[in-house]
Amino acid sequence: MFTVRGFKDVEVGHAFSHSVTVTETHLVLGAGLFGDFHPLHTNEEYARRSRFGHRITHGPLTAGIMAGVLGNYFAGSAGPYLEQTVRFRSPVAPTVPSCTPVAPISICLVGLKLARPP
Predict the structure, then answer these.
(1) 39-49 tens-digit pLDDT
(2) Residue 110 pLDDT > 70, yes or no?
(3) Per residue, what are the HEC states of the chain?
(4) What average pLDDT score do residues 28-38 get?
(5) How far apart are CA 54 and CA 41, in angstroms?
(6) I want to staple 92 with a disulfide (CB 3.0 to 4.6 A). Which of 2, 43, 52, 57 is the partner?
(7) Domain span including residue 79
(8) Where residue 35 sits, what CATH number does that domain have?
């Protein structure tokens, strides 16, 4: 069951957090969904030689995970959010099968605008 929250329940600076384990499946599905088969996402050898040292998750997938956090946080309020601005501070790496790291997703509200019908 979701707790119903609306914009009146949060203020600028309010933080949301969520953890998700990004797996090989996420990268494969992301490549197909976005049509982005760049070797940073799909080729471990290539990515290992990059400045990141490993494959990275597609930006739109990371943004989608963040959208899910907001959607679940405000579930039941029937208030869609209309804009999302994203700044990636570090790449999200997929897990190695033998360990279980998680990618923390943090969202901080920097501005609130309520959508009003015309």
Answers:
(1) 999 999 999 99
(2) no
(3) CCCCCCHHHCCCCCEEEEEECCCHHHHHHHHHHHCCCCHHHHCHHHHHCCCCCCCCCCHHHHHHHHHHHHHHHCCCCCCCCCCCCCCCCCCCCCCCCCCCCCEEEEEECCCCCCCCCC
(4) 94
(5) 9
(6) 57
(7) 31-106
(8) 3.10.129.10
